[in-house]
Amino acid sequence: MKQKTFLNKGSAVAAIDIGSSKIVCLLGQVQDEFGHIEIVGHGYRASEGIKNGTVIDLAAAENAVREAVHVAENAAADRLKGYPLRDVVVSVSACHCYSSFIEATVDVSAGGVSRKDINRGLVKAQRSVLDTQDAELIHTIPAAFWLDGNGGISDPIGMNGEELNMNIHMVMGNPSGIRNLAQSVKRSHLDISALCVDSYASGLSCLVDDEKDLGSILIDMGAGVTSFSVFQAGRMLLTDYVPMGGAHVTNDIAQGLTTSFAEAERLKTLYGNAMASSSDTHDMIEVMQMGDDNEMHANHVPRSVLVGIIQPRMEEIFEQLRAKLADNGVTEAIGRRVVLVGGASQMPGCRDLANYVLDKQVRLGKPIGIQALPKELNTPAFATVAGLFPYLGSHANEMPAEIMERGDTRSLWQKTKLWLQENW
Ligand SMILES: Nc1ncnc2c1ncn2[C@@H]1O[C@H](COP(=O)(O)OP(=O)(O)OP(=O)(O)O)[C@@H](O)[C@H]1O
Ligand SMILES: [Mg+2]
Question: Which residue among 205, 275, 303, 355 is the one 20 to 30 A from 403 at the CA level?
């Protein structure tokens, strides 16, 4: 059954992905009471002040966010005339987040398990976290239910019993990283309604329903961070990351071939491959020397040298991912299938290397089924931003502040929003 959203039909909403290499803003309009949002404008630009998913220069980051929002506002000016922009959902890099699992038990109301019963359990879990940990709450997702000790229940609504036990997946955030991210949106005069882990949003935009239901791992290879989310039974069960991405590959090339970052980026996208092939030794590529744009002074190196720099770093990323999955107990049963997205996944050979190192069935993904997504955003690099409206529109029951509000525990709700109040 579709749940009604907290968004008002016709209202204007925004989604912002603050990445290490680019900042993207989508503006949308809520189409109906079920949270369908149509994209009516977009803007993006290169990031500034963000490195490896973290704000390192607040003024530069604020400025870059404002510019991306401004471009989107201009593009959507006609469609959104007279509709004030209210709700904004912002991505959070997985490098500021961690998964935590909390149990909660509630008495079942007369007449069977209701949404209110589940919400009471979620409020209880959030309260215990807020009371004991210095963390921001990002997502509160019920992962498993037991009714009077009987497990294997995917949706207990309407079922009869006395005691409902829940295992809840809470995604928590490190306060300082998140507050700085929120602060970078402040100058755009937008109020943040929800935060969403980047790889979760990417999963919402790029996985098909069967992948979310039967079990899969979404890997988002960005510039500074490679994040992942594990899905099963339609829910996100885990998120984690490896602190490396495409920018590390580019840095290795710049150092290895003693050239500039921009030239290394050009060589990577034009001639790069994540796996060596026999023809690489015969193909020669031209490498401009640092600070010298005279082609006469360029070095000529076999392509195998370039691939020989790229492959070890890409392997290292996948090896660390494999270790993280094993550490987190992601078993074969859940994660046989991998979907790769993010700008860095576009490297030729990436799928084969992932398949080899992770020993899993891998496909390359990009956003699917997103209403009115502009063609230029329909690539793996825009997976996160494309999933932010589906999250805002259809996942209010996983948003900590919404859960508190529905539970009518205002003081706690205010506590959840504390970081917003402190900063806005
Ligand atoms: N065709 C390509 N081949 C290889 N790498 C590519 C290609 N196109 C883009 N990239 C790399 O993708 C990376 C950017 O990816 P993306 O836009 O997903 O990052 P981001 O979301 O800004 O960063 P993050 O999520 O890490 O904060 C850059 O390192 C870039 O070099
Ligand atoms: Mg990203």
Answer: 205
Q: What is the DSSP letter of 5?
A: P
Q: What pLDDT does residue 96 have?
A: 97
User: Can you tell me which residue has the tokens 């995917």?
Assistant: 154
Q: Where are the domains of the chain?
A: 12-95+176-202+369-423, 97-173, 209-366
> Which residue's CA is the closest to the ligand 1 atom numbered 31?
246
Give the pLDDT score at 23: 98
> Which of the listed residues 18, 20, 225 should we mutate to test ligand 1's pocket, taking the one with most ligand atoms within 8 A of CB?
20
User: Could you tell me the distance, in angstroms and rounded to a whole number, from the CA of residue 301 to the centre of ligand 2?
Assistant: 32
Alpha helices in 1-155 (DSSP H): 58-75, 115-132
pLDDT at residue 55, rounded to an integer: 96
Residue range 209-366, CATH number = 3.30.420.40
What residues flank ligand 1, with Cβ below 6 Å? 19-22, 53, 93, 198, 222-225, 245-247, 250, 265, 268-269, 272, 342-344, 346-347, 381
The CATH T-level fold of domain 12-95+176-202+369-423 is Nucleotidyltransferase; domain 5 (3.30.420)
pLDDT at 186: 83
Cβ(271)–Cβ(303) under 8 Å? yes
Please give the Cα distance from 384 to 213 (Å, whole number).
Answer: 20
User: Can you spell out the DSSP letters for 375-396?
Assistant: GGG-SGGGHHHHHHHHHHHH-G
- Say which ligand is closest to the CA of 245: 1
User: Is 97-173's fold the same as 209-366's?
Assistant: no
Mean pLDDT, 10 residues at a time, the chain of 424 residues? 71 96 97 91 98 96 96 94 87 97 96 94 94 92 96 94 97 94 87 95 98 96 98 96 98 96 97 92 89 78 97 98 93 84 98 97 96 95 98 93 77 47 42
Residue nearest to atom 11 of ligand 1 (CA): 344
